[in-house]
Amino acid sequence: MGSPDDHDEKLASHSRRASSFGAHAAAYAEHRPDYPAAAIRWALAAVAHRRPPTVLDLGAGTGKLTEGLLEAGATVIAVEPDEQMRAELTRRFPSVTAHAGAAEAIPLGKESVDAIVAGQAFHWFDLDRAYPEFIRVLRPGGVLAALWNTDDASVDWVAGLKKVAGSSVSMAPPPSGRVTLPDHRMFHEHAFERSTFPHRYRRTAESLTATIGTQSHTLVISPEERAQVLGRITAYLRERPETAAGEFDLPIVTLALRTTLRPAD
Hints:
The chain is of the alpha/beta class and 265 residues long.
C-alpha cells in the first residue's frame, strides 16, 4: 500500500499534467490528430435523430473534437478550463460558443444538452464531482461519450517509438485501443459500450516529434530532459525505413465509450 506522501505526489503530478497544455495551445492545435468521423457518429447514435443534437464538448481544448462534431451536424457548446486553449478554439471556430468551466462545474443550465462528449480529456475529470454535473445538464435520453486516440503499438515501428519516447514521468501505456477506467460507481450504475476505430495521421519525422511534444509527459519535465526525449524520437524516426523519407501515416486506434446516462422519460 502506498504512503499518504505517494498519494499526494500522484495527485500533484496528475494536476501538473492536466494543466500543462495551455502554454502550448498553438502547437497542440497544429499537431494533435483529429477523430474519425465513424467514431463520432457511433458516439452520437442514440441522439442522432434530434435535429440537430446539442452536444457539449467537455474539456474541449483547442477544438480537435469540436470540428468533427460540427461536421456530424451537431450544435456544439464547448467548455474548457484553460484560457489559452479556449482562445485557440475560439480563433479556429468563432461560431462555437465556448465557456470557461470544467467537468466538475459545468456552466450550463439543467437539461440543456443532448450529449456530452470528451475527446482525450475524460481521464482528467474528478468523477465524484463531475458525475452529478453530467446528470444535471443532460436531457432525458442524453448520452455521455468519451474518445481517445492511441497509437497502434501492434505495428512494429510504433511499438519501438513508444520505447524511445518515454520520459521520467511516463506511465506504462495501456494496450492500443484500451483505456484503464477508474473504479467509480458510474461504471457500475450504467452500461457502457466500447468500440474501436482505425485512424491514421499524416506526419513526418519532425512533425510527429512535435506531436509527441504536445503530450503531458513531455511538457512537465525539465527543458533539458525534454530536449533529450524529443531528440531521441527524431533520431529514431529518421533511422526507421518506414518513417525516414518524407511523409508517412501514423496508425492510430481510436477508442470510444458511450452510455445513455439519462434514460428517456
